[in-house]
Specification:
It is a single chain. Helix content is about 35%, strand content about 45%. The protein has 7 helices and 5 strands; from the N terminus they run H-H-H-H-H-E-E-E-E-E-H-H. The protein has helices at about 1-15, 20-35, 40-50, 50-65, 65-80, 220-235, 240-250, and strands spanning about 90, 95, 100, 105, 115-215. It has a 3-stranded mixed β-sheet, covered by helices on one side. The protein starts with a helix and ends in a 7-residue tail after the last helix.
């Protein structure tokens, strides 16, 4: 009986009809098969009926003699399903630059990825000059996983500057920072300034490097000491970069 029920279930899976009609077909088909198996084995009965798709097609032909009825049955279901494939919200500005919309915003239903492309792009995945989203890629990127020239995000990868919980960039600011200049809780770089710092120049509380300054032991002249340390390590570094990094020291506890 289990094999008969499985066969009937497969037939019904190929039939487009309301539940009441399907239930009637189930009862008729189960009764027909049960009676047939009284005189034949189940394998022979199912083999004689053939492919469940063909059986379903015969039922469909009898249900929908007028094929327009079948279309009427199908179209509401297709419309209902199609609305879940449409963007929940999309805006594309009429103004374009180099073939890209000035602003493109796109979000899909239920968290399905949506790609937005524009000068200003906002979406789950966004590509633009200014890009905002879960995964933004652009010159200026803001989002969960941000990739760009300047990136701000939970995880930020910035060619020039990165700011985030985890930041990787030429200049990186973050809880964990990795870069030529790295500033944060735990940082690794040529110039590393933070709670735990490792680099050619290491300035912080727990430090490891060639040129080191422990902030907790630095006096009121911590900024001056940090600038002197950076100049000693990198004598060709422009003054404005030295001033930028040494100026950050005063914002760390203990300085």
């Amino acid at each position: 009986m289990d094999r008969i029920n499985r066969y009937v279930d497969e037939v019904l899976s190929f039939i487009i009809a309301d539940n009441k009609t399907k239930e009637r077909i189930r009862e008729d088909l189960v009764l027909q098969l049960s009676e047939a198996t009284r005189t034949e084995d189940t394998d022979s009965v199912l083999a004689r009926l053939g492919d469940p798709r063909e059986v379903a097609r015969e039922f469909m032909d009898s249900i929908y003699e007028d094929k327009s009825e079948l279309l009427n049955e199908l179209l509401p279901n297709l419309s209902e399903n199609a609305k879940y494939l449409e963007p929940a919200y999309e805006y594309r500005s009429k103004t374009t630059i180099f073939g890209l919309p000035l602003v493109h915003i796109k979000f899909n239903r239920y968290g399905r990825p949506a790609l937005a492309k524009g000068i200003i792009a906002i979406g789950t995945v966004s590509l633009g000059v200014v890009s905002i989203g879960a995964i933004p890629i652009g010159i200026i990127s803001i989002g969960a996983l941000a990739v760009g020239l300047i990136s701000l995000g939970a995880v930020a990868l910035g060619l020039l500057m990165a700011l985030g919980s985890v930041a990787v960039g030429a200049v990186a600011f973050g809880g964990v920072a990795l870069g030529l200049g790295a500033i944060g809780g735990v940082c690794l770089g040529k110039i590393a300034i933070g709670g735990v710092a490792a680099g050619t120049v290491a300035i912080g509380n727990e430090i490891d490097g060639e040129y080191m300054l422990r902030i907790g032991q630095a006096g009121p002249e911590a900024v001056t000491e940090a600038a002197a340390l950076i100049r000693a390590a990198f004598p060709k570094l422009p003054d404005w970069i030295v001033d930028l990094f040494s100026g950050l020291v005063k914002y760390f506890p203990g300085s």
